[in-house]
């Protein structure tokens, strides 16, 4: 065990405070690399810097603790709409092309994403142009024009994005399962909103939403790559020092009860039946999260997973089948998705639920458990190969968890999971068979599908 499992940030007291904890490697004699430095600016903005001297790039990511969970029925989709609008012009760069050309002209790329709990704006540049990346993000986040004509123009773009998702059965079933699993509450609503909610939003909504959430106390800036941390601190103070302090966002907890309407079917005359099954999962900070990650890996990650071997290789019921785990701050889900023909829909669902029940009923064999640990630990390490991936992980953790977990600690905790742990957590997640289901395409009736979910 290391001397410190997590890295925390200090509280601002008139000047930036640096917290730099040395974390010994889990392996004896191994060198310590990529240890982040965390600074809290006087306005409360937390900055996490990861110096990687061998990297050729610098990734700059700004995280705000706001997403579709922070909206009401009228403004559902506003966080995502704002994400679009911050690329549409600032006081320094009044047009969208000027913003993109500033980054792409330096050889980099830029984008953003919105989830149910966070919004992130990022750019990735050659390391010698990190100043450009920090400057552009600072301008976008503090000086966007939100011009009425641009809001109207982008309204159609956002609505087309919603239509595109609806027209893609595989994408739409992923949206539908969230509603089937969580029901009519913010965590169950679509991130992009609806055609109607996007159509009704006004500029005052944008200003009010940003004023409530886009503040230093509710954000984290992460910079990773071949950087000089002292210089990055200077740049960030210069570009983000004027960001209002504000307060950290909070939201009401979600209900974990399965909705009465837990099977949603959108019948379409298409060749494939797209289905997604969901079971209640666990929250982001639950002590069983490492066990759940191992269980999910064995269940549906990769071609050696149980679902792939049983549903595709052994029975030929689907081309694609996989599982995933989603953890929000207070609630979560475990899901299985597959694309099958209508004639195989019921059999595939029976096989999938049988595999879930097998995790409850039988301890995982030692050889499979070891292979699963190796795959989970190895793929986790490989996912952190780039400055962008490290910067994104650390920024997200600092924002949502208040601390950063070193990769060696994550690996150690994954490898500590036992077969008994997996069987216990499988019982916790799948034992009650409180499954929800979404289907897009030709389908059996809901009552028949519900009977299969219940074990009939």
Number of domains: 2
Shape: globular
Instruction: Provide the CATH superfamily of the largest domain.
Output: Metalloenzyme, LuxS/M16 peptidase-like
Calculate Rg over CA atoms: 23 Å
Structural class determined from secondary elements: alpha+beta
Highest-level CATH class of the largest domain:
Alpha Beta
Number of strands: 14
Q: The CATH topology of the largest domain, please? A: Cytochrome Bc1 Complex, Chain A, domain 1
User: Which oligomeric form is depicted?
Assistant: single chain
- The overall average pLDDT, rounded, is 93
Q: Largest sheet, order of strands side by side?
A: 2-3-4-8-5-7-6
Query: Strand count, sense and closure of the main sheet?
Result: 7 strands, mixed
Order of helices and strands: EEEEEHHEEHHHHHEHEEHHEEHHHEHHEH
Query: How many alpha or pi helices?
Result: 16
Terminus-to-terminus distance? 47 Å
Strand content: 15-25%
Helix content: 40-55%
CATH architecture of the largest domain: 2-Layer Sandwich
Poorly predicted tracts of residues: 1-32
Give the arrangement of secondary structure elements.
Layout: E1 7-8, E2 17-19, E3 37-40, E4 46-51, E5 57-64, H1 78-85, H2 96-104, E6 109-114, E7 119-126, H3 130-143, H4 148-167, H5 169-182, H6 195-200, H7 203-213, E8 219-225, H8 229-240, E9 263-266, E10 273-280, H9 289-300, H10 306-314, E11 318-327, E12 332-340, H11 345-361, H12 366-382, H13 387-401, E13 403-404, H14 407-415, H15 419-430, E14 436-440, H16 446-453
Parallel strand pairs: 4-8, 9-14
Antiparallel strand pairs: 1-13, 2-3, 3-4, 5-7, 5-8, 6-7, 10-12, 10-14, 11-12
Helix pairs in contact: 3-8, 9-12, 9-15, 10-11, 11-15, 12-14
């Amino acid at each position: 065990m290391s001397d410190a499992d997590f890295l925390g940030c200090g509280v601002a007291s008139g000047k930036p405070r640096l917290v730099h904890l040395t974390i010994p490697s889990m392996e004896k004699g191994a060198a310590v690399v990529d240890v982040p430095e965390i600074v809290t600016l006087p306005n409360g903005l937390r900055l996490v810097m990861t110096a990687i001297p061998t990297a050729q790039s610098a990734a700059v990511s700004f995280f705000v603790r706001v997403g579709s969970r922070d909206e009401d029925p009228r403004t559902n989709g506003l966080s995502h709409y704002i994400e679009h609008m911050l690329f549409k012009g600032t006081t320094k760069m009044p047009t969208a092309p000027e913003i993109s050309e500033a980054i792409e002209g330096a050889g980099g790329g830029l984008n953003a994403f919105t989830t149910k709990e966070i919004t992130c704006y990022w750019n990735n540049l050659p390391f010698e142009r990190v100043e450009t990346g920090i400057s552009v993000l600072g301008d976008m986040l503090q000086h966007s024009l939100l011009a009425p004509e641009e809001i109207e123009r982008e309204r159609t773009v956002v609505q087309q994005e919603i239509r595109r998702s609806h027209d893609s059965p595989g994408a739409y079933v992923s949206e539908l399962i969230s509603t089937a699993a969580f029901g009519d509450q913010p965590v169950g609503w679509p991130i992009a909103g609806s055609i109607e909610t996007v159509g009704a939003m006004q500029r005052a909504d944008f200003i009010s939403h940003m004023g409530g959430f886009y503040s230093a106390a509710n954000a984290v800036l992460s910079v990773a790559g071949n950087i000089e941390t002292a210089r990055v601190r200077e740049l960030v103070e210069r570009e983000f020092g004027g960001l209002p302090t504000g307060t950290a966002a909070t939201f009401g907890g979600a209900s974990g009860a399965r909705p009465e309407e837990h099977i949603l079917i959108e019948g379409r005359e298409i060749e494939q039946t797209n289905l997604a099954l969901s079971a209640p999962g666990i929250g982001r900070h639950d002590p069983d999260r490492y066990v759940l990650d191992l269980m999910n890996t064995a269940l549906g990650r990769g071609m050696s997973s149980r679902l792939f071997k049983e549903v595709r290789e052994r029975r030929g019921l689907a081309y694609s089948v996989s599982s995933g785990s989603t953890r929000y701050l207070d609630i979560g889900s475990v899901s299985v998705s597959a694309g099958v023909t209508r004639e195989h829909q019921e059999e595939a669902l029976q096989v999938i639920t049988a595999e879930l029940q097998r995790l409850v009923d039988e301890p995982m064999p030692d050889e499979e458990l070891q292979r699963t640990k190796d795959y989970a630990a190895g793929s986790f390490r490989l996912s952190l190969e780039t400055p962008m991936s490290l910067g994104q992980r650390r920024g997200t953790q600092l924002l949502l968890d208040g601390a950063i977990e070193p990769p060696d600690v994550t690996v150690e905790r994954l490898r500590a999971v036992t077969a008994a742990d997996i069987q216990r957590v499988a019982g916790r997640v799948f034992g009650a068979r409180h499954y929800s289901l979404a289907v897009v395409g030709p389908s059996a009736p809901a009552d028949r599908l519900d009977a299969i979910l219940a074990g009939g």
